From TrEMBL:
Chain's gene name: ndk
Subunit and partners: Homotetramer.
PROSITE patterns: NDPK, NDPK_LIKE
CDD domains: NDPk_I
Enzyme Commission number(s) from the entry: 2.7.4.6
Top class in the EC scheme: transferase
HAMAP family (alphabetical): NDP_kinase
Protein's recorded name: Nucleoside diphosphate kinase
Active-site residues, Swiss-Prot/TrEMBL: 116
Natural source organism: Billgrantia aerodenitrificans
Catalytic activities: a ribonucleoside 5'-diphosphate + ATP = a ribonucleoside 5'-triphosphate + ADP; a 2'-deoxyribonucleoside 5'-diphosphate + ATP = a 2'-deoxyribonucleoside 5'-triphosphate + ADP
Length: 140
């Protein structure tokens, strides 16, 4: 089915000038960018986004990292977009990510792992709405 998923290009990948390379991988895989913006997240905005991890030991570092520089948030649309994006990203820990995936090629650590992608239809719906209002999404 056609789905939408939220993608974030994280501060490490933005700092590496890899925005275009990463978006190019989405487009070459048949995903369409239907919304995009660059943001420097506040602690509150990053903490709210990752609220489900609030009790995890890595939460503070995660919020610190995600607020350390600008990010590019996008809505990707396409057939099985959620799973397709997760395949393109590779495992959360770049050391376990398959060769040729975004995290294998652009990330070094589990904290600075280049990209985020929604992990289920329910989280995609929440995450897209967390960053974009309906009039900021351009169906195409
Ligand atoms: P992301 O997909 O953005 O979701 C939560 C992030 O927490 C994850 O990517 C990692 O960058 C980061 N993180 C740090 N340590 C861990 C861990 N042990 N398990 C899962 N995620 C972690």
């Amino acid at each position: 089915a056609t789905e939408r998923t939220l993608s974030i290009i994280k501060p490490d990948a933005v700092a590496k000038n890899a925005i275009g390379d990463i978006i190019s991988r989405f487009e070459k895989a048949g995903l369409k960018v239907v919304a995009a913006k660059m943001l420097h997240l506040s602690e509150e905005k990053a903490g709210g986004f990752y609220a489900e991890h609030k009790e995890r030991p890595f939460f503070k570092d995660l919020v610190g990292f995600m607020t350390s520089g600008p990010v590019v948030v996008q809505v990707l649309e396409g057939e099985d977009a959620i799973a397709k994006n997760r395949e393109l990203m590779g495992a959360t820990n770049p050391k376990e990510a398959a060769p040729g995936t975004i995290r294998a090629d652009f990330a070094e650590t589990i904290d600075a792992n280049a990209v985020h992608g929604s992990d289920s239809p329910a989280s995609a719906e929440r995450e897209v709405a967390y960053f974009f209002s309906a009039d900021e999404i351009c169906p195409r």
